[in-house]
Every structure is written in C-alpha cells, then in structure tokens.
Design a protein that fits this description.
Elements: H1 21-30, H2 35-51, H3 53-63, E1 67-71, E2 77-82, H4 85-96, H5 101-105, H6 112-124, H7 131-147, H8 150-160, E3 171-174, E4 190-193, E5 199-209, E6 215-222, E7 233-238, E8 249-254, E9 265-277, H9 284-320, E10 322-323, E11 326-327, H10 332-363, H11 369-400, H12 413-424, H13 429-443, H14 445-459, H15 463-486, H16 488-493, H17 495-518, H18 521-533
Parallel strand pairs: 3-6, 4-6
Antiparallel strand pairs: 1-2, 4-5, 5-9, 6-7, 7-9, 8-9, 10-11
Bound molecules: decanoyl-CoA (MFK).
C-alpha cells in the first residue's frame, strides 16, 4: 500500500454509560440498595442517545448557529432568535428524560441529585451545550423553590420542572452588565414600582445566555434603594406576553463567542419589562447565589463530562493509530500521557460527586450543619478546580491526535473551545478563590472542611496515604495561619494557591477513601499516583513582590 492509499479511521464513541466503569462503580458504592438497579437502565438509555442521535443533533446545531433577526420583512422590530432543529431536540430530550425534574421530584430523596447529575454527566458532552440553559433553569427552580411566592411556584416552578416538552420552560440568568460579570455590585438596571404592585425594569444586560428562554431571573435596583450590592433585589420576568411578543425587551446582537456556538448569548436592553420581585426587596446577591451555586455545580459536572469525552476519544484513537511501527497504545510515553489525563479526571470526578451528594442531602433537609458548610465551600472549589482541569486536559487531548486535533472537521477543536468557557462562566478562578475565603469567613467552612478531612484521613487503611495527606494539611494550615496574620492582602493574594492546594488535598483524601472502599486496582493506583504526582504544597507568596512593570 502506498502512502496516498492510507486512510486513518476515526475513533467511534460507544454507549457513554457502559463505557464508563467509574460512574457505575461510584454509584453502586454510594446509592442505597436497589436504586442502582432501578436507575441503571435509564442511564444506559441516555448513554446510547449520547453516543448516537444526540451527536447528529449537536453537529447540526453547531453548523447552524443561532441567528438574530431584528426586523420582519416590513420593518417591524421583532428580535427573533432562530435556532437549529438539533438545538430544539436537545431541549425536548432534556424535558422527557427529566433532566431538571428528577432533581425536584426527589423520588430518591437525598440521592435524587446523584441520579440527576449522572444524567447531566452523560448528556452534556453530546448536547452542544444545551446544558447551559439547563443549568440556569435548575438554578431558577431552586431560587423559586426557596424564595418564590405561591403564584411563582404554581407557574414558573411547575414549568421549569415539567417532563412534558410542551410545558417545559428554560430560564435565563441575567446577572452580567457592561460594568462586569464578576463585580455585580455596580448593577445599574433600575426597578420602578408600578401601581399594579409589580415592577418595570430598565437597563442593559450584557451576557444573556439562552435568550430563547421563556423566563429569566435577574438583578435590579429598586428606585431609591442604596448603592452597592445590598441595594439589589432579585427579579423574575417572563420574556414574552401571551401573544408571543417580547415584553419591552430589545435584543441588540448575539455574541460572537470562542465556542458554545449553538448557544444563543445576547446583549439586550430592558425597556420597561414587567417583573416581580422574588422574596421581597433586598439581599439580591444572597438570593441569586442560590441560583449560581447550582449553576456552579453544573459547570463542574460539565467539566468532568467533557474531560471524560476527550479522554475516551484519545484512548480509542490510540488503539487504532499506528506510528513508528506500533499502535499509539503500545508506546509507553503515550500511555503515560493518557494515564495522567485519566488521573486528573478521576480526581475531579470524586470531588464533584461529593459536592453533588451533599447538595442532595441539603435540599432534603438531611445535611448536618457541618455538611452544609462543607457544601458551601466545595461548590466554588469544584467549579474552579475542574474548570481549569478541563482546559488543560482538552488541550492535551487535541495533542494526542497530532495535526488532526487542530482540524475543525474532526470535531476535536470544539472540545478545547468549549472547555475554555467553563473556567470563565459562573465565576472565574480568582473570583471563586475569593468565594472560598468568603465561605471561610461567613459560614465556618474552613472548620467544616478541616473536620471532614481529619475524619476521613483517620479512617484510611493506607498509613502512607494518611501520612502524606496529614502532613500536607498541616503545612497548608500553617501557611494559611501565616497569611491570616500577615493581613487581608496576603490572604486574598494567595487565595488561588490555597484553593488549588486544598482541593488537591481533598481529592487525595477522596481517592484514597474510594480505593479502600472498592479494593479495585485502578482506584488504588489512582490514589497512589495522585499523592505522589500532584503538588500538595502551597508556600505563601510575598504578594508585594510583583513582576509586573
Ligand atoms: C456556558 C456558556 C456561557 C456563554 C458565555 C458566558 C460568558 C461569561 C458571562 C458571564 O459574565 S458569567 C459571570 C457570572 N457571574 C458570577 O458568577 C458572579 C461572580 N461574582 C461573584 O461571585 C462575586 O463574588 C459576588 C457577585 C458574589 C460578589 O458580590 P458582593 O455583593 O460584592 O459580595 P458580598 O457582599 O460578599 O455578598 C453579598 C451576600 O451574598 C452575602 O450575604 P449577606 O448579605 O447575608 O452577608 C454573601 O455571604 C452572599 N454570598 C455571596 N456569594 C455567595 C453567597 N452566599 C452563598 N453562596 C455564595 N457563593
């Protein structure tokens, strides 16, 4: 055969559930008797969809990105956003399979979230990022559940958690304005009180993803309210009136983003949009945090899902691609590269699933005070750690394919583009590191994570793991105390280092515990490699020594 007759086969995805032994191993350990057998057939069905029809829908949605049509042929302003058929299929499938509903029906009590997030984990990487509207929808359902009045519960909540595609609503979360996505205290949207008892909203929202949603949750400042975040309130609005017209909303344009090409993200103005306040005026940031703490968990699930997808493709490719006389899977260096990616994903998986487990408990009133404080800090940690990991894993995955990884029609570059948003969306790494400090300061989360770690480490069977992790924790505690003494700038200036190191220690403890529980060789290897090859130390940096000119 000549060189020109050679054609490389592409890797083929198989059932996304059965191909992922860690997911089933994990669920079997964590779920009560009988539940795994009950939900596995459904996860298998989703695993088939994710490796089959969803891929074609996603492809179609990506190739036909949303279009903003500002005017009808006769010049009337319509601000329509047209989306692809594949995108609509994703929504239909999500509703039918209860991707939101399962989290709120709570059929499996505190384990319902584990079930729901396992579905999301299978769904996300084949969904063309329909997982983003789902994240905001879930967050909105939680905010309405916590703070909404009876009318909101009987209307919005019912639609958001419906399994009927004709009834199902998605929600936007419109928090970001031109002045910033991180510092929302400067929100300039004004809420005018109306005679009806409701409000009308006036302002510009700069990133509104899923602008085709039926409703949105947003922040605005009631007239006369104080400046800063304390004066903000949380509002609920419906985008269209019963006749289907936008309710005083002007869409300016769709964002031209690096990735997430099928997802419509718009800039828009609220020009007297009718809205209702959620949970009374004030404490808007605290209230919307119930929403973004959910979307941050989604973000972390999407990260582990995407890591898994990339690794699976790279592993499959390594079995069919020959170079230097043998398959890539037979080259020790390549195998080591793949193993390190697998390790990163396995660690992240444990971390995120732990947060999901706690979320389920908290929502069912079964979390202790310590567990709630632990969830509070694991949420930003899971989001920030996995958001970074998915970018580096995806980059390495592309490299595993050589030049093919850099060519658009292989579908591989999309993995990297879509990974980058996960580090940004719902709070950047630095903002979330500071959120960890906020949780330490306000919610006793430092004590909670320390207590949880010490208990887990005591229970480990492997004395070497116990020793390494205890020393790492003590060292981190010492450095943290030193930063506290050095003052707030030293503490915040080192927040990212502390967050990353604490997360790596925490993951090390989870991997070690899981290895003890399963006795599986792969789990033991992963725990051992994590402790030996991940940096569990963080030395306090003198933050006044900047290299910036
Ligand atoms: C998927 C594709 C996407 C497509 C492209 C999208 C591109 C990206 C577009 C974006 O812009 S995404 C940006 C999303 N933005 C965020 O996620 C917000 C990030 N910023 C933060 O998280 C800030 O830290 C925060 C807005 C919370 C700072 O606000 P404040 O008001 O200056 O904080 P403050 O005063 O510490 O907290 C106010 C209250 O909220 C406090 O409660 P109290 O009033 O009772 O004291 C806090 O304890 C509470 N709080 C804050 N964060 C919390 C929280 N409570 C629970 N959990 C949290 N995480």
């Amino acid at each position: 055969m000549t060189n020109s007759e050679f054609f490389q086969d592409s890797p083929v995805l198989k059932n996304q559930f059965t191909q992922d032994p860690l997911l089933s191993r994990y669920l079997k350990k964590r779920l009560p008797d009988g539940m795994a057998q009950e939900i596995f057939p459904h996860l298998k069905e989703l695993g088939d969809l994710a490796a089959g029809p969803m891929l074609a829908w996603a492809d179609e949605a990506e190739r036909n990105p949303p279009v903003h049509v500002p005017y009808d042929p006769w010049g009337r302003r319509i601000d329509e956003i047209r989306v692809a058929g594949g995108w609509k299929k994703m929504e239909e499938l999500a509703a039918k399979h209860g991707l939101i509903a399962a989290g709120y029906e709570r059929k499996y009590s505190e384990f319902s979230r584990l079930y729901q997030m396992s579905m999301l984990y299978l769904y996300h990487s084949s969904s063309a990022i329909f997982s983003c509207p789902l994240a905001m929808t879930d967050g909105a359902a939680r905010a309405v559940e916590l703070y909404g009045d009876a009318a909101m519960k009987s209307r919005a909540f019912r639609h958001l958690t419906s399994r009927d595609p004709a009834q199902f609503w998605t929600s936007g979360q419109w928090m970001t304005e031109k002045s910033g996505g991180s510092d929302v205290s400067g929100t300039s949207t004004v809420a005018k009180r109306e005679a009806s008892g409701g409000y009308s909203l006036w302002g510009v929202k700069w990133f509104t993803s899923a602008t085709t949603s039926q409703m949105a949750m947003t922040l605005a400042r009631p007239e006369g309210a104080e400046a800063g975040s304390r004066g903000l309130s949380l509002f609920y609005l419906e985008l269209r009136n019963p006749q289907g017209q936008l309710q005083n909303i002007r869409i300016h344009r769709l964002k031209d983003k690096l990735g997430t090409k099928a997802l419509p993200t718009a800039e828009l103005s609220l020009e007297g949009t009718p809205a209702q306040v959620v949970g009374g005026e004030g404490q808007g940031v605290r209230k919307i945090s119930s929403l973004f703490n959910i979307t941050r968990i989604y973000n972390a699930i999407c990260s582990i899902s995407q890591m898994r997808r990339g690794i699976e493709l790279a592993v499959e490719y390594s079995k069919i691609r020959t170079a230097f006389g043998r398959k890539l899977s037979e080259h020790p260096l390549h195998v080591q590269t793949l193993s390190d990616l697998q390790l990163e994903w396995m660690g992240c998986f444990q971390l995120v699933m732990k947060a999901v487990e706690l979320l389920g408990k908290e929502e069912c009133g079964k979390a202790s005070e310590t567990e709630s404080a632990l969830l509070r800090v694991l949420t930003p940690l899971a989001k920030l750690y996995c958001g970074k990991a998915v970018v580096s894993v995806s980059s390495e995955v592309l490299e595993c394919f050589g030049g093919a990884g850099y060519v658009e029609d292989t579908g591989l570059p999309k993995l990297l583009r879509d990974a980058q948003v996960l580090a940004i969306w719902e709070g950047t790494t630095n903002v979330l590191s500071l959120d960890m400090l906020r949780a330490f300061e306000k919610e006793k989360s430092f004590e909670a994570i320390q207590k949880d770690l010490i208990t887990r480490l005591k229970g480990l069977r492997n004395p070497e793991a116990q020793k390494i992790l205890t020393e790492a924790l003590n060292h981190l505690g010492f450095e943290f105390e030193s930063a506290l003494k050095a003052g707030p700038e030293a503490l915040s200036g080192n927040a990212r280092g502390f967050a990353m190191t604490l997360t790596r220690i925490y993951i090390g403890s989870l991997l070690s515990e899981f290895a003890d529980q399963t006795g599986d060789t792969k789990d033991s290897l992963a725990a051992r490699h994590w402790l030996l090859h991940r940096n569990l130390r963080c030395d306090l940096k003198a933050i006044q020594q900047s290299l910036i000119d």
